[in-house]
What we know:
Number of strands: 10
Order of helices and strands: EEEEHHEEHHHHHEEEHE
Radius of gyration: 19 Å
Strand order of the largest sheet: 6-9-8-7-10
Amino acid sequence: MPNVRLKTDVGYCDSGGQMIFLDALHDRYFSVTPAIAKLVRSVSSGDVLNVAQQSLLLRTGLFEIGETAQASNCSPCDVGVVSVMSTAQHVKKPRLRNCVQWALATLSLALFHNVARRLPLRRSLALAKALSRSSLMRLLLKDPQSTLAAFDRALLLFPRKDRCLPDALALYPLFKCQNPSTRIVFGVRTDPFQAHCWVQLGAIAIQQDIEVVRSFQPILAIA
């Protein structure tokens, strides 16, 4: 019997004794009941649910029927942070290429500081992914460290309040076009509930305070 699986761009984690989901398709964070959480843990461990149990999960809008009895993508988000990449030791004197990178970073920040407040999250993510496939970006951006230095300088032009999402959306295509392992990671913590997001390259969080990042439980990573 086919089993259920998480829908694309849906993730979850156990945080503060609660199972919390992020549904990036519908811009919502929420916790589920203990009964639903128990079923999710069962499917994550490889159990095949009966029809009634599957129906309960499908009604949440977070799951769909898979093609087989396997449901490998039903595990909680498991993204670790080992270190961070910062620009303190990499800032170079401005040159033509640095100016071009600064211009691209500024344009990306201007775009996402505008659209992140207006577009649904799924559309903002789709736009960031589309930009990461740009031939122009692939041609002009060759060095992640100098890209980050340019991005750091461009950040000075933009407000710093409630900026983690537009900053991450803007930084993602600049790194993704250079390294396919780049991801946007969303994390949460409880008491009180807070959400955060950042760009990660493998196990390296980009332009983050490592203690801050580690205080958030990853809930969804989008490549």
